[in-house]
Amino acid sequence: MGETMPHDKTNESHPHPPPLITFTGVQKTYDGEHLVVKDLNLTIRQGEFVTLLGPSGSGKTTCLMMLAGFEVPTSGDIFLRDQRLNSVPPHKRNFGMVFQNYALFPHMTVEENIRYPLKTRRMPAAEADRKVAHILDMIQLRDFARRRPTQLSGGQQQRVALARSLVFEPQLVLMDEPLGALDKQLREQMQLEIKHLHERLGLTVVFVTHDQSEALTMSDRVAVFNDGVIQQIDSPSNLYEHPANAFVAQFIGENNTLAGRIQSVEGRHCRVSFGDGFSTGALIGTGLAVGDATRLSIRPERVKLNGSAQGLPNRLQARIREFIYLGDHLRVRCELAGNDEFMARVPVDDFESSMQPGDVIELGWRDEDVRALDAS
Ligand SMILES: Nc1ncnc2c1ncn2[C@@H]1O[C@H](COP(=O)(O)OP(=O)(O)O)[C@@H](O)[C@H]1O
Ligand SMILES: [Mg+2]
Questions:
Q1: Which ligand is nearest to the CA of 74?
Q2: If I label 194, which of 146, 174, 321, 350 is the partner at 20 to 30 A Cα–Cα?
Q3: What are 67-109's pLDDT values in tens digits?
Q4: How many A from CA of 38 to the centre of ligand 1?
Q5: What is d(CA 21, CA 63) in angstroms, rounded to the nearest whole number?
Q6: Domains in the chain, ordered, with CATH?
Q7: Cα(89) to centroid(ligand 2), Å
Q8: Exposed, middle or buried: residue 188 (CB in 10 Å: 0-12, 13-18, 19+)?
Q9: For residue 185, what pLDDT is reported?
Q10: What ligand has the least distance to the C-alpha of 63?
């Protein structure tokens, strides 16, 4: 691969690349009544991998379709650098696109499929030959160039779709659940392939998924959608460690919740009572004060058991309901303060094999491992 794509990363040290895409106050309704996207403000920087993550129906695809130009915002603007995009037709935006149903042309070979966008752009044949050969190498399908899509596996077809979206060196690539039809192993392999392509070519990618682990694996930043509103846009680690609200805490990763009330506040810390006579320290979420109802959020891997709980500031009694063996770790389902689904996650090596379902044990955690979030 001697050839360099013109959008190779040339300035990796640049701390803040310029904005490529900006949504300002974008709203969308299909029926004139119900807003499926509400006041969307979002900046995507050049070279960024941004994922729109959320449950089905939360407005992700609608946002991507507006960016692609297949849907028009009801109000608000979308900019490509300084250019207002609202009235630019899709084919003039020069974006690459990959969707779940790859929609390869069945009567064309792999090579012809990939060449198609260059043909419609009237690229001279010799140059097109070079680009197609280059990208066939990149997706490691050179030996399959003359096959038709039906003669390929699902993963290979998806790689061809990817190649077809990248071959014309688009300034932006849009992907809507592109891996949804693949089995787990292939999906995880393709996640890494796409991520590596993004890094190697310096692509700007807007990716849509409802799969939180996919979003965390691939993205520089993730915008968590619910009901047409971005709940939080942040790096994967910040979403996990510092969820802005109970929805994000619940949607990203595994999470225990307990309903409680805030008893006292001191700086970032608060004391929360819950259940029948239980209380714990926690970090307080924004907008909460003494007397407020709250939802406590605790990650299963932060919950320590018995011996490992010693010396921790919050220690509570719980009853073991069930062990779930997962190879490298155990999930211990407990009953705590009326919550029968309280999970602890214990590395297999730390497990005290004398524990039995029905035993009363001690759970422990640090204040910093608990968030007191909005109760809604
Ligand atoms: N073309 C359409 N016409 C009418 N309603 C639509 C259309 N596309 C999507 N919707 C509605 O808009 C909402 C958001 O849908 P969508 O953007 O597809 O969400 P997501 O991709 O997050 O699943 C849903 O309630 C959906 O039913
Ligand atoms: Mg969708």
A1: 1
A2: 146
A3: 999 999 999 999 999 999 988 999 899 899 998 766 899 999 9
A4: 13
A5: 12
A6: 9-95+170-241 (3.40.50.300), 254-373 (2.40.50.100)
A7: 21
A8: middle
A9: 85
A10: 1
